[in-house]
Amino acid sequence: MFHLPKTTISGPPVSLGLFALLFWLVLISPSLCQNVTFTRGQKFQIILLGIPDISKMPLPPTDAPVWDIDLFDNPTATIQALKAAGKIVICYFSAGTAEDWRDDYRQFAAADLGKVLPEWPNEKWIRTGSQSIRSIMTKRIKLAADKGCDAIDPDNTDGYQNDNGLNLRNTDAIEYMRWMQKEAAKYGMKIGLKNSLDIVNDLAPIMDFAVNEQCAQLSECDAYAQFLALNKPVFHIEYPTPLNAQAANGVSCTGSGVDKGSTILKDMTLNGIAYYCDGSYVDTPTLGGTSPPRPSKSPKPPQPPRPSTSRPPVPSSSRPVSSLRPSTTLRPTPVPSRTSSAARPPTSTPGNGGGGGCKSKHWDQCGGNDWKGCTVCESPYTCKGVSPPYYYQCL
User: In which residue ranges is the amino acid composition biased (Pro residues) (predicted)?
Assistant: First the structure.
């Protein structure tokens, strides 16, 4: 039973109504247990480019109980509005890399930084066993709790599968995830495992859900059998090309092991657009985010499934770089919010000299629907379609 302490108050009288309000605020503090339940097959939406526009509530897809959004970009008001609408909110952050645009980047010690991710020059692998790194992640997990997140989606925990420069091993990732699970549990939050198929079976008993990218394309979805047997959802993202309703008839939705997961078909920008395996489509209204430029990564060609977690840990350098799988959620520069899903040609055709004669810098936007800015890039860069016709970028 929760009891308020006896307090002597001097000064102006305070109404019982104010006491009741304060008491209620304590009870609904976002740091307390959220009591959410994850179950196999839950429909979800994931938006990491921009933030859901809560001024347009109820937001589609209204039948998706789970939403995965960026921890840093989304204010508390957005998270609380989604929760008030009955949504389970998962908050995404990178737990395995240092991103130089984050507010806490200066806290990362140089000794804890590894190699730059080839596709993301703003990002470096980190030494996950470092106490300094654990301190940073402790603060991030607390931030998620303070904002009211129901769960966390820590990305890039599979550095051991990449040329990381830190000799990370799969045993490091297992220990790191166990530590984060305990930290999240202190606030009543759930946690999921992102990709990291080599350690799925080791962590399935203590993880609340899994998030996977491209397991259908890579013929790896069967690796999640234990998660599904435990009635835990596998939030499965595919990036089919082209992205349309017909993609639901392809391997993204028909591949082995896909049927029991929670599959969503997305553009690599991870904006508000989504298709589902039943052929349905949504374009969730969003507002521009705050993340810096991040070029899109092309999907890898299909590969045979990797061995199970029973194999001994090996240094990441034992694998040629060319065989590495996607290791991080794909996120380019934010674009203006969209309220229409119609595919229109760019308002300003990239490279036509529009935009008042100005030139965009490397990574800047240079075209797309409703774009009114520069459409020519500074040399030696060219304006390329990242998600045409919606978004073009100087690359």
Answer: 292-315
